[in-house]
Amino acid sequence: MSNIRFKALQDVLSRTIPEVKPPSSKISDYFGANVFDKKKMKEYLSTEAYQGIINSIEKGEPIPRDLAEQIAAAMKSWALGKGATHYTHWFQPLTGTTAEKHDAFFEPTADGGAIERFSGDALAQQEPDASSFPSGGIRNTFEARGYTAWDPSSPAFLMARTLCIPTVFVSYTGEALDYKVPLLKALSVLDKAAVDVCHYFDKGIEKVNASLGIEQEYFLVDIALFNARPDLYLTGRTLFGHISAKNQQLEDHYFGSIPGRVYAYMQDMEAEALLLGIPLKTRHNEVAPSQFECAPIYEEINLAIDHNQLLMDVMDRVARRHNFKVLLHEKPYAGINGSGKHNNWSLITNTGKNLLSPGKTPKNNLMFLTFFVNTIKAVYEHADLLRASISSVNNDHRLGANEAPPAIISIFLGSQLNDVLDEIETSRISKKIKEDNLLWQGIPKIPQILPDNTDRNRTSPFAFTGNKFELRAVGSSANSASPMTVLNLIVADQLKKFKYDVDKLIKKGEKKDLALLMVIKRYIKESKNIRFEGNGYSDAWEKEAEARGLANIKTTPKALDAMLSEKTDILFAETGIFTPREAHARHEILLDAFYKKLQIEARVIGELVLNVIIPAAIAYQSKLIENVKGLKDLGLSSDTYAAQLDIITKISEHVNFIKTNVEQMVNERKKANVIEDLRQRAIDYDEKVKSFFQPIRYHVDKLEQLVDDTLWPLPKFRELLFIK
Ligand code: ADP
Ligand code: MG
């Protein structure tokens, strides 16, 4: 029974490091080689067609049919030239992963031959039989028609021998069934709102887009060890395991030298990513043993999110070549750090200006303050919705667990900017100051380079880091589109309100700059409670946050309520992002995924305990009993086998506890399963079923410590975390 663990350990010890050769020693030689990007479009399209598609991309206009035909032909000849045989619409359904359905280019002809075909229609639209993707009841299975539609703003790419076309996924009745549709809508609302506000400062600005740089944390584990842990391969995390004697307490892993096998993997994975145009730049060890991070250079947000989804896929595929498994789960191992995905976000104009970068002149600083303070106000107003957008059963292990940002949304600015805002708040802006010169004196100086990294607060969920905000609470396996849709949406909504407030003052006769400053000042005051510079992990902060009226919702089913609140309803209606039907459907999908994942974990616990752990414990116990009997037969006194008797009794105690608690857990599951109301079912799973996990685990881990190592069947934490 214990064979599989030792077999796995043997496999690991016999590994050799595969030789990895990047396509060229210069990244610029191969970066984006597998992407049908602008450069290739230019090469493969007529000048007219090229201009047509660029216009469509930039203005978001639909692409005429004849143009789609030309682009399809160009894509096909590029892809065939690179050995492609199939194409697929690549999309992001609400399962959280990406989906594809491959079709061959090949088509038979009437004369018995065959040609390679790819039409404009096939590029523009497909109807995957999508009845088994989550739709929250929008799409009944009998009207199983959803369709995918080409998103030309994200370039097509080649994966293995398949041409992948990024698409949106909508129901036949037009409702969004994916992550991309709402994101694109939010970006368009943001563009308009931000450009309108930019025009107070610069009439030349025509477009504002969000930029995003995603830091991706992950764990690596040898595939043989992974396969010997059914909890890992069924749920993505270990449900049992006594903490390793050595773990992260020496803090010797972070930024340490990268082990050889891992280094080879990273190089290989990076080369694949770079070929796909994912601009990976950074790699390093993370805090926990076997935990690592990679990060690309930031990009336009829609592309950055596509690239992160693609990257997670590439990481997984390349890992197989190296006999590794990538763990993207937020909390694969209890007792050591989990993984997140920091979302570095800012706003950039078509003229190349970062709106969250403090400027050189006071006027520029007023512009910076406008976007800076509106972002703070937006997060203050809709903190609960932002919290909801990062909720998942996995992330519940991190948020508020004193290793990741707390479940309380707050904003860290750094002392300098905090002081600047305080100064504005308390300054007296006299309405009599009508002279520009004097007004500018009312704006404190903002240093252009803010010393962020050293003093910036790692315990904050939303921190300003020099020229961008960093949402640090996103889970490592999440699709960033969910929180980024919310962030862009609430900032857009806030900017609209800002413009309304400023215009009102201007209409009353106030000078423009003064009006701007007056509204900024008011917003600073109104949103003050969300700013926090202290230790987000402390109990004192929980108390203070409560006194400040900030929400602290620790679990997903309740955090998700914010998706359907009255305030959110108004936000969604005013911005047109989700219809009530879509919002309800999404809420339902998330609750459904939440309780089902707990259901799976509960089942895996039950099975492993009964089929693997208890038998191992009993096998050892029987050996001890034999031993005691033998000693007795020799006529030795009971002192000689006191230790054995003690272990025998302890094993029985643990086994009994585990067995009874698993039965009770199964009972609670049965009760929860028949609860009609989905929200209540999810809450019961969380509060009544999940509450058994920890006590059961405690006793299993005690057994792990008692039982003869050679009989223990599951790879131990020390092996999972340290043997490579
Ligand atoms: P950290 O100290 O958090 O590791 P880095 O400076 O290495 O920060 O950047 C982390 C990520 O933030 C990278 O992906 C980087 O490209 C991205 N980033 C930098 N500037 C911006 C910006 N203006 N907008 C969005 N992302 C940015
Ligand atoms: Mg960071």
TrEMBL record:
Task: Indicate what this protein is called per its UniProt record.
Answer: Glutamine synthetase
SMART domains (UniProt xref): Gln-synt_C
EC identifiers of the protein: 6.3.1.2
What are the alphabetically sorted keywords of the record?
Answer: Ligase
Under Pfam families, the record lists: Gln-synt_C, Gln-synt_C-ter, GSIII_N
* Native species: Mucilaginibacter lappiensis
Q: Which GO terms describe its biological process?
A: glutamine biosynthetic process
Every copy of the GS catalytic domain together lies at: 179-613
Q: What is the lineage of its organism?
A: Bacteria, Pseudomonadati, Bacteroidota, Sphingobacteriia, Sphingobacteriales
Which molecular-function annotation in GO is an example for this chain? glutamine synthetase activity
Ranges for domain GS beta-grasp: 85-174
Q: What class of enzyme is it?
A: ligase
